[in-house]
Design a protein that fits this description.
The complex is a heterodimer of chains A (589) and B (152). Helices cover 65% and strands 7% of the residues of chain A. Chain A has 589 residues and is of the alpha+beta class. Chain A has 3 domains: 182 residues, Arp2/3 complex 21 kDa subunit ARPC3, CATH 1.10.1760.20; 87 residues; 146 residues, Heat Shock Protein 90, CATH 3.30.565. In chain A, the strands form 2 sheets. A 5-stranded mixed beta sheet of chain A has the order 2-4-5-7-6. In chain A, helix 5 packs antiparallel against helix 6. Chain B is built from 5 helices and 5 strands, in the order βαβαβαβαβα. Classes of the chains: A alpha+beta (589), B alpha/beta (152).
Chain lengths: 589, 152
């Protein structure tokens, strides 16, 4: 597309060239139009130069108006008009298109590709405005020049008006659509189709408009224009409409075809009506179709884009998941290796501490029989007992604690790695055997442990679930309030796809500030109350979450704690084994 | 361990402390067998198959191996066990896995490969010593197979 606002230094020369070319084209189009004349010499059924003028003024800006003026003047002057009449008509024929182009540009905000239906309507509007000016002026000039009697003004004006309007409606869509898209984009069958279509248009139009006036077959063109509008674009439709109109006018002007009978006015009205329908109808349909096609394409693009985005996101998520799983496995492996490698030196510490202890014992025995002064005997015995003995006890206690911490880490890592069964678990039975194995601790604590009602079955791994209840009950036993008889209650209920359980105690409770850290490893809130590594609840959380359940705590300091646990319900679920191996260790803690 | 007096005990462990603890415990239990030790899997294999540095070792008729699993280098305990149990001339040597690992998968793997006893090195207080002591008793009553005089 040529930019109407070229580089400033070249504007003059370029505009001059456009003006000259425009004048020549206008002149040629006028001569073509005059060959269609059949009312008076100056009044034609179609006046193509007006369309040329509107398009040129729209594309290049109204500063190229001298081209229109020159062309119009030359066309009329060479057609036998007086200079004055020719000049007068030329002024009107320039002003009309200028007004039409301004209207298109400013009011309609016309899209030159005729992309929207409003562009077609805008073009129609531009044609009406242009034609009103040119006809009003032109017919007046004819009357002033004595070419028509003033009384004929009323009858000639509509003919001029329709001719100019048709000129715009026929020419502008062709020019604009071919300027916008000059590609010859038909391939294969589609090329064949377009050739066949236009061949049929020409043949049918020839048969109709070169045929006998009695043969009222003009409506036979509409299936072709519909075909064109629905299957091809605005460009092809505008071209077909122009061919049809041109051949209709040509035939009518030469006394042939369906519009060649009857009074001149009547013929003209029928012809113009036919042409208007033949142009505006298919053009609107074509634009609407392209509009819909574009909307569909945009929708498809949006859809594809969305799908692509979903695919991208899914892929990203999967990658993140894989990465996370890999990281997780890495951490587990790390914990595992570290736990074992840390154990090796511990074996030495503990072992040699024991050796030292034995040696100290032997030394003490030997000392008793040694012939040493009493004060030396006493001092050495004190060193052996209080110095070395105490140190050894600290070493032993510390290594034992170290060992317990490592063991706890190892258990936690194992709970992350081992495969779980997914089978129907009779949680009531699991809790029963858990409580049985805790019998000693329960008796020692003096607490009452009871199961309220019957516990719903769950879907999962019986051993792991037993571990959960064992940890929760042990936890409750450890943190009972001194002086208050311990009451520990276990309950549960099925709730849709979930089985819910709770373990409630009346123990010391957990402060609100501590609750967020409750399920983290090595967290101990009442270390003086019970031995342990702060791993029990971390394991509970891990086991429950690996089952796809949830664990949460409800607690008030000094009043007691309730742990709520959800697991997948087993209602109606058939037991199945998930995973190929079961590498569980014994559930000792 | 009167009946098994001729058995040499080979302790394979990258931690010399562990070897020393084993040695002391055995002595305390009254095991007076020859106790020899290597600190890597490849040395263990060389010893067992009489290669490399041990090509000219005195022919020990009977051998009992205490084998650690986690050892650095190309041959860990599992691989040493596999090679010993894969060779018909050495497969009847009793192997006792003695490690810090109590991972059930690793234990299973060792039994699958043909280890005879699996003992987790305990740290708790006297547990390790006790375990070694029990092991000593076990060895003393164990019926040792007769291994061909000339190996490999």
């Amino acid at each position: 597309m040529t930019d109407p606002r070229g580089k400033p230094t070249r504007v003059g020369a370029r505009d001059a060239a456009i003006v000259v070319v425009l004048a020549v084209v206008y002149f040629g189009a006028a001569k073509l139009g005059l060959s269609f004349a059949f009312a008076t010499k100056q009044v034609t059924a179609v006046w193509p130069p007006t369309g040329v003028a509107v398009v040129a003024l729209f594309l290049f800006g109204h500063r190229v108006w001298p081209g229109v003026l020159l062309g119009a003047f030359a066309a009329n002057a060479t057609h036998g008009e007086s200079i004055a009449t020719a000049a007068g008509i030329a002024i009107g024929n320039t002003l009309g298109p200028v007004a039409g182009a301004i209207l298109l540009r400013r009011v309609v905000r016309f899209d030159r590709t005729l992309a929207r239906l409003r562009d077609v309507i805008g073009l129609l509007l531009g044609a009406l405005v242009t034609a009103t000016i040119t006809a009003t002026n032109g017919v007046a000039q004819l009357a002033l020049g004595g070419i028509i009697p003033p009384s004929a003004y009323g009858s000639v004006w509509p003919v001029w008006w329709v001719g100019d309007a048709m000129g715009v409606l026929l020419v502008a869509p062709i020019l604009l659509s071919w300027v916008a898209d000059r590609s010859w984009a038909w391939r294969g069958w589609r090329a064949l189709e377009v050739v066949a279509l236009f061949a049929m248009v020409v043949v049918v139009c020839h048969l109709i408009f070169q045929g006998s006036p009695e043969l009222q077959m003009q409506n036979a063109v509409f299936p072709l224009t519909l075909w064109c509008a629905l299957r091809f674009g605005v460009r092809e439709t505008a071209t077909a409409a122009a061919i049809i109109s041109g051949m209709a006018v040509w035939g009518t002007a030469h006394g042939r075809g369906p519009f060649a009978t009857g009074a001149l006015d009547e013929r003209l009205v029928l012809l113009e009506a036919f042409m208007t329908i033949a142009v505006i109808g298919p053009l609107s349909l074509s634009v609407a179709t392209s509009e819909r096609r574009r909307a569909e394409a945009a929708l498809q693009r949006a859809h594809d884009e969305l799908e692509q985005r979903v695919r991208d996101r899914t892929a990203a998520l999967a990658a993140a998941n894989t990465e996370l799983a890999a990281k997780n496995a890495e951490v587990e492996a790390f914990v595992y290796i570290v736990s074992h490698d840390l154990r090796a030196p511990l074996v030495n510490l503990q072992g040699f501490a024991k050796e030292l202890e034995l040696s100290v014992g032997e030394l003490s025995e030997k000392l008793q029989d040694a012939p040493l002064p009493a004060n030396v005997q006493r001092d050495v015995a004190a060193i052996l007992r209080d110095g070395m003995g105490a140190a050894l006890r600290f070493i032993t206690a510390s290594t034992s604690k170290f060992e317990r911490l490592i063991g706890a880490l190892l258990r936690l890592s194992r709970h992350g790695r081992e495969k779980y069964l997914a089978e129907v678990v009779d949680v009531g039975a699991v809790v029963g055997s858990t409580l049985a194995s805790l019998q000693q601790s329960i008796a020692a604590s003096g607490a009452t442990v009871s199961v309220t009602g019957s516990l719903p079955n769950a879907l999962g791994d019986a051993t792991a679930i037993g571990q959960v209840f064992s940890n929760l009950v042990e936890n409750a036993l450890h943190y009972l309030r001194p002086g208050t008889p311990g009451v520990i209650e276990i309950g549960g209920e099925a709730s849709g796809a979930l089985a819910q359980y709770w373990v409630r105690d009346n123990g010391v409770g957990i402060g609100a500030s501590a609750q967020p850290r409750l399920f983290q490893v090595f967290q101990r809130f009442h270390p003086h109350m019970a031995p342990g590594e702060g791993m029990g609840l971390a394991i509970v959380k891990r086991v429950i979450e690996r089952h796809g359940g949830e664990v949460r705590v409800q607690s008030e300091e000094g009043a007691g704690t309730t742990f709520h646990v959800t697991l997948p319900a087993a209602a109606g679920a058939k037991g199945r084994v998930d995973g190929t191996e079961s590498t569980r260790n014994d559930p000792r803690r | 361990m009167a009946q098994n007096q001729h058995v040499t005990i080979l302790v394979v462990d990258d931690d010399e402390g562990h070897i020393e603890l084993v040695r002391r415990s055995f002595r305390r239990t009254g095991i007076s067998n020859l106790i020899t030790s290597v600190t890597s899997g490849s040395d263990a294999l060389d010893y067992v198959f009489g290669r490399g540095a041990y090509a000219n070792r005195p022919g020990t008729s009977d051998l009992l191996i205490l084998l650690d699993i986690r050892m650095p280098g190309a041959y860990d305990g599992i691989e040493v066990l596999r090679q010993i149990k894969a060779d018909p001339t050495t497969k009847s040597i009793p192997v006792i896995m003695l490690t810090t690992t109590d991972d059930p998968r690793e234990i299973n793997r060792c039994y699958e490969l043909g280890c005879n006893v699996y003992i987790t090195k305990p740290v708790e207080s006297t547990a390790f010593i006790e375990a070694i002591n029990r092991l000593g008793l076990l060895i003393s009553v164990m019926k040792m197979p007769t291994v061909p005089e000339k190996l490999a």
